[in-house]
Request: fold
Amino acid sequence: MRRNRQTDKNGRDERDGGWGGGPDDGCGGPGRFRTRLRTRSRTRKPAAPGWSGLLDPGEVAVATDRRGRESSRYPKGRGPRPQTFLPWLLMGIGALSNIVSGKDQNTWLAGLGLLAFNSIYIFVVFSAFNPRYRDSRVPLYGFAALTAVTYAIALTFGHAWMLFFPLLSLASGAVRSLRGKPHFIVLIVISGSAGTIAGWRFGDHWMSTAIGYGTFFSGMIAATVLSLFDTIKQLDATRQELARTAVEKERLRFSRDLHDLLGHTLSVIVVKAEAVRRLAPRDVDAALSQAADIEAVGRQALTEIREAVTGYREGSLGTELDRARSALQAAGIEPVVRESGPPLPPQASALLGWVVREGVTNAVRHSGATRCEIEVRTDASAGRARLTITDDGRGPAAPSATPATSGGTGLKGLTERLAAAGGTLDSGPDGRRGFRLVVELPVDSEEVEGEEVTARQ
Reply:
């Protein structure tokens, strides 16, 4: 469909029949146009199904559409199926020919034996691939019955019936409970007895060797191929689990960053708005200054949220200390900030900046304090940085009055971040009154010395 370009009043280029459609877009109005677009997006095939082409029938990889809902769009698997084992039954065509031509002594007994072998063989193969029975003993019991039938018809009729031993070995490769050392022992027994019976029946050592060789390797190859495809399925499941874990970690990071960002910012905005309300009747200039701070904090919050969404936000301890002073002063709390030691590496500085943000937010919102002290000490020789935040407020609330903190937010989220970096967080009452927050974080002495040299320059 060809669209005519138009220009709106702001000089921007538009086209008729956009996402909402239009009365003259040639598609019958906005509803039909929107439906057609949605239909195309839902029926589009995935670009890279990965390992999904190797899955069993009925098992499909899980995809998600634009709304995050799971959908089965990938094609069904093309790996080994039960039907893959059925063409090998043609190896019994010689036995069938003997039955039809009457070469066997008892035709009815031979036909019954052939029917029993084929029926049990199909049962073993299909039960071994059935997700409901493949890990149970049902295929093993079927394989035991198939073994008994194979030995019976081989010892009774011989000649063309000896080719059922490779089929027996092939079926053993599909039984999961025989994988590993038990299967190897079973193959040794079956191939050895098959070669012995063939030598007794044919009286030819070369024929005996061929029957034993074919019996052993048919089962070994079948088991190896099926084990390989099982490994591929496990790798595909692991890949999908890793992808889900990565998504969950990213969601946790984003929720934690959003809590730490908005919790502090909104608290500062509320405190400064209250300051504007108090100062407006008697000091307009001071009220306007607080209002300007609210605007600056809001703009900074927008920038930080954008950076948090893209995952590139890295705070600075110095910046957070400056903001802490401003927030505490606006809340009527006297800030006392002490710093000692060389500058911290960027990663440690960003992590401690989060701690300062959360600690000061809690002091402003919950403590009711009049004084808050923040002390940062860096010991380059010991490779440790220590941050202490104390206030003279009400102290920690009673356990029954404190709501449960959800994972990834508040002090619990900070504890997880610090633990990932090898640090610790300890919080609790500071003597009779107040609250104390202590954080220790390991830092690389070489990086600290490098930051100190850079600061001097």
Remarks:
- Residues 324-457 form a domain with the Heat Shock Protein 90 fold (CATH 3.30.565.10).
- The longest strand covers residues 371-379.
- The longest helix spans residues 205-279.
